[in-house]
Amino acid sequence: MKIAITMPQMGQSVAEGVIVKWRKAVGDEVAADEIVVDVESDKISFEIESPAAGRLSSCLKREGEVAAVGDLIGEIDDGGPEEHASAASKDQVPSVGARPHAGGDQPQVLVQAESTGSGMPRRTELPEITREWLSPYLMRMALMNDVSMDELQTITGTGKGGRLTKADLMHYLSRRPVAASSLPGAMGKPEPSPGEVAQLGEIIPMTAIRKTIADHMIQSIRTSAHVTMVHAVDMTSVVALRERMKQAFADQYGVKMTYTTVLTFVTARVLRSFPNINASVFGSNIVLRNEVNVGCAVALPDESLVVPVLHGADTMSFPEVAQGLDRLFKVARDKALTRADVEGGTFTISNFGAFGSLIGTPIINQPQVAILGMGSIFKAPVVIDNQICIRDQIYLSFTFDHRVIDGAMGGRFLNAIQRATEALDEGDLDLRGL
Q: Which of 139, 218, 285, 309 is within CB 3.0–4.6 Å of 295 for a Cys-Cys bond?
């Protein structure tokens, strides 16, 4: 049986990759999980393993060619018999000219209405959630066909680690009953023509990266019940501490002492006491993650976004967090992130304050259940003991999935970060003696 090798999703804004080198030739025997091809995107370099043991039967993308996320790049023949259902479905695929919207540049989705259910067994095991299990291509296909996240969970994935593949979703759609059109949808205003759009202003097509980010954000909004809380944190002592220690810190450890490092250090430790926030959702299950791996969103010069991950952040000292983030940010901007650098995140921090924003409402990075947003530090009048004082302030925006986290837990989490941040001293940050 032929088993597909597809281009995986590596980071929420990685839309495509270049085939750098095939490590195996057609006809070579390969073991399950053995590396078969090296791939490089504009942000990271990574390796793709064989999804099964067998023989490499085809290399559909040559070295130097570009493949989009979800594209079939090769096949493994595991020596088993071809599935009868697959052969039958191939015989039923109409010619290109007979397909709906033939000649369009979008993927063709064929739907066959049946009176029965999907016929697909419900997944009985959790997938490998340390990696994103839905590619942007599949999310776009699901959105186009109004397939909910709960419905996606019922489809059996045949990819590595139980991942859903294009073939799995196509097979499901071919057996899925067609929902009746809604009245508002049937009576809605038609899409404007290209000429009407051109009259509005200059037309700039979305890049593949922007489409990927859009798919990821839309799917997150449709999946999680987003709620955002905002706390004002007094950063006066932290600002003074940084001013006293930043030069000695840079001389000792070779990196800058930043406010992002401070909040990452504090948040990673607070997450230990809030396992439901350091979690993921799969169907009706909440998975409490074993590790605290904090991702920090980085905006790149090409206006794309990548989220490198600091693994085991709760076990690191403050200097180790600073050095780890400094390395990740540098390789992200140099577009040299590896696969390990972007996988396995359990919580995300977004520092939109670097651009002067005071408050934001960040969108959850699936399949996580929460994200912390950092605003810009600013001076403001604050009443302390009935006296007006000028203090350094920051707004922290905590967006969480209300399916998993209620308001009380969200409030306690933000309070814990606020108390820990406002009480920081040299001893907490391992800076005594500098």
A: 309
**CA-CA distance, 120 to 319, in Å (whole number)?**
51
Please say if the pLDDT value at position 6 is more than 80. Answer: yes
Q: What b/e readout covers 162-184, taking b as 16+ CB neighbours within 10 angstroms?
A: bbbbbbbbbbbbbbbeeeeeeee
- Assess whether the region 2-175 and the region 225-422 belong to the same CATH fold: no
CATH number, domain 225-422: 3.30.559.10
| CB of 345 closer than 8 Å to CB of 309 | yes
Residues 386-426 pLDDT 10s? 999 999 999 999 999 999 999 999 999 999 999 999 999 99
Residue boundaries of the structural domains of the chain: 2-175, 225-422
- CATH topology for 2-175 is OB fold (Dihydrolipoamide Acetyltransferase, E2P) (2.40.50)
Q: Could you give the CA distance from residue 308 to residue 348 in angstroms, rounded to a whole number?
A: 9
Task: List the Cα angle 9/10/15 in 5-degree steps.
Answer: 65
pLDDT at position 113: 36
- Whether pLDDT at 111 is above 70: no
